Amino acid sequence: MNPYRILILLLVNFLLSQHIGAQTDSSAQKVVPSNSISPIADTGSLIKKDSVVKHDPRKATRRSALIPGWGQAYNREYWKIPLVYGAIAIPTVMFVYNNNWYKKTKYAYEAKYTFETTGDTTGLAAIDPDLKNLSTTSLQSYRNSFRRDRDYSILFFLLAWGLNVVDATVFGHLKDFDVSNNLSMNLKPQFNPTTRSPGLMVTFHPKKPAKKLYEVR
């Protein structure tokens, strides 16, 4: 056999073996086992998880407990802030009003009671002009009424503050949930083996919550 032909065949065989080996190496590098984790992808996911913060209802609770309306601002419900301060302002104004008249009626009652028992007139001059013509019994009744209303205004103030905290907490928990009205309903015929009678089964499928991209706050 011609030696040149043998040499050419050996060279072609060598080149083919090198080409097949290179393809095998490249395909092996592309194949990644399903249970393996890429260090780069894992690092990126860790960075993403560390940099993303979910909406925390506890922050809304603490902020509303400190400053009314702060939790609503954290929940991005800014339209509720005027309502919160309006609900708190009403008992505050009522407290100032009732406390002012409570002090006036209390002083007038004590001054007139002292005058009736001891005859001392030193305190009568400082009585409010609207209260000078009232009797001791009337002054005592007004004093008790203003004191009661003042105490109620404190209770309403605390109640409004508490409702502010509850509102921020509840809507803070609902912030990450889909509360839309999109519901799907399925009607299926059904046979009840107990009563041996046909029936109709109604199935509701709530809308699945969509995945949200949380922002860093």
Counting copies of identical and different chains, the oligomeric state is single chain
How would you describe the shape?
A: elongated
Given as residue ranges, the uncertain stretches (5+ residues, pLDDT < 50) are 28-34, 36-43, 45-50
Strand % is 5-15%
Order of helices and strands: HHHHHHEE
Summarize the structure.
It contains six helices and two strands.
Sum up the structure in keywords.
217 residues; mainly alpha; two-stranded antiparallel sheet; 6 helices; 2 strands; 9% strand; elongated
What's the layout of helices and strands?
Layout: H1 3-30, H2 39-51, H3 57-66, H4 70-74, H5 81-118, H6 136-173, E1 183-192, E2 197-206
Helix pairs in contact: 3-6, 5-6
Explain this structure.
- The chain is mainly alpha-helical.
- It has a domain at about 55-175.
- About 60% of the residues lie in helices and about 10% in strands.
- It contains 6 helices and 2 strands; from the N terminus they run ααααααββ.
- The protein has helices spanning about 5-30, 40-50, 55-65, 70-75, 80-120, 135-175; strands at about 185-190, 195-205.
- It has a two-stranded antiparallel ribbon.
- Strand 1 and strand 2 form a beta hairpin.
- The N and C termini lie far apart (about 85 Å).
- The relative contact order is 0.11.
